[in-house]
Amino acid sequence: MGSLSRNKRKIINDPVYGFVTISSELLFDLIEHPWFQRLRRIRQLGMTGLVYPGALHTRFHHAIGAMHLMQEAIETLRFKGIAITDQEAESTLIAILLHDIGHGPYSHALENSIVSGTSHEEISLLIMQQLNRQFDHRLEDAIAIFTNQYPKRFLHQLVSSQLDMDRLDYLKRDSFYTGVSEGVTNTERIIKMLMVHNDELVVEEKGIYSIEKFIVARRLMYWQVYYHKTVVAAENMLILLLARAKTLAETGQDVYATPAFDFFLKNTFEKKDFQNRPELIENFVLLDDYDVFTSIKYWTHHHDAVLSILSNALVNRQLFRIELQDQPFSQASILAVKEAILKNYPETDAAGAEYLLSNGSITNNAYIPGNDKISILMRDGSITDIAVSSDQLNISLLTHAVTKYFLCYPKNIIT
User: Fold this and answer.
1) Full residue range of the structural domain in which residue 318 is found
2) What is the pLDDT of residue 70?
3) Does the pTM exceed 0.85?
4) Is residue 301 within 8 Å of 308, Cβ to Cβ?
């Protein structure tokens, strides 16, 4: 048993942080679990690789990185005299390790397409609850921390807040893999400035500038990476494509898909279904990016013109044009595009043309003041919101959400 125990004390060489330590046998066993290993087959940034070719990193990378940052944060807080037991430390590490385990293929693009009205956080919790049963209820505290039911509230804030280890990792990691240097944040300094005051996670005053940079980096990364207009076009094409495939499948037409994907293509499930039917989770964790893209490649030759057009466009990166503006598009302009689609694609009908056009909005919230604020511990012991205490940048300006409206359609359409 001794040698087995040592074998589970592994290190992982991470390109962003260097060596990451797996600090307990339970963490090792969770990482080795097939449901967690599935995250190797789900890209962190979905369709973003079509714009930034290096953005091919996975949810597995991110989960391991967030766990590493959590280890650093716990070590910092303990050094400053904050009481965190070994059990609490392990449970907090488990909570952050598993925080994204409920992500489906292509992440946010398909979040509400595969499972209706259910977020990945809700799926993550259901998976954690099943893992808890498999691991003899050793995840009870981790689940309590994840759901903010644990007495020490600051542990949940480390997992989920506006300054959590999730955000600290994905900003730095996504910046690294995309090559967008505006997203670089000094995660090490931010973590060293963390403190707990009245059970609230706070940042010492001397860390203000690092937090300012973090908020600005987050805003820039949203516009340059997450909401890059070509990424938005590709993601909406994927949503349209899946909607078309689902419509065809539900009306009895032959739509090939891998078994794992076929199950969700031909059935519609809601949150209550997952809660009442545990076997649905076992189907969900078989699904990854490979299932979806393999099916899309097959659909390039599908007899349905719309499904074939969309599939070929995504496989060969013939992406739609996207228009952005500050006001919603008028119904007249949307109708003009629909008419142009019908004219240019005579093989489609009015119902099919609906799947070659997408309009909606994107909203950039760099920082939202309120209950979940980033609190600064001033030298006099008072607590202030970063939006108030910032003196170098007017962070309060960044608290205003910016919404842009988009209209997305094939590039050969002239209106």
Assistant:
1) 229-362
2) 98
3) yes
4) yes
